[in-house]
Amino acid sequence: MGTLDFGVLFRHSDRFIEGFWNTIQVSVIALVGSFVLGAILAIFRISPIKPLNWFGTAFVEFIRNIPLLLVVFFFYLGLPALGITLDGFVSGTLGLTIYTAVFIAEAIRAGIQTVPRGQLEAARSSGLSYVQAMNLVILPQAIKIVLPSIGNQFINLVKNSSILAVVAGMDLMYFADLVNSDTFQPLSVYTIVALLYLVLTLPLSFLVHYMERRFGQSDAEARKPKGKPKKNKPTGQVTM
What is the pTM of this model? Predict the structure, then answer.
């Protein structure tokens, strides 16, 4: 029990593989969903339409100030009281998506506010609607600015996917608990799980850093003056 035995991984490879694959599925679905929902909520929060602004603000402030577990329990235990039953995988994925989305919304909102307002006004004056101006002009710039923050939220999302184990969501942590109950080797089992999570989070971290450097280089190149400065030719003296 007190020594590392990586043979557990091979003896229970079917469970670890299934849990690892389910964790990837949850992470990808929640990553895409939270980004889309977060962008929508960010637009709501700065929208000049008061009902949308109020809804976005209330939703973000409510969700981000309660534990993730309560959000997951709402879908897993609360909805059945209304006649809607969801399994642990779906409940956990929905809860993880919504919970992460509010933090992404705050990051994108901060990025939008750093973009000069004149760009939005210029886009509107050129004939674009508010939504088109946000999607085509403002959001791309805002996301580049807050990319490190969004990347950190995506990494947290992968780690937070372990919440599915609480609602029998068939994720990596859920199957690790099953293996541990059969083998009574918690040190080996959870060390393996930690390494498997690193397999998911480290490439994502490197990708975020790479994209951050690329965007930084492209911005630096865009700010460089193009072409060589012209030299003024000396004018000769006019003799009479």
Answer: 0.83
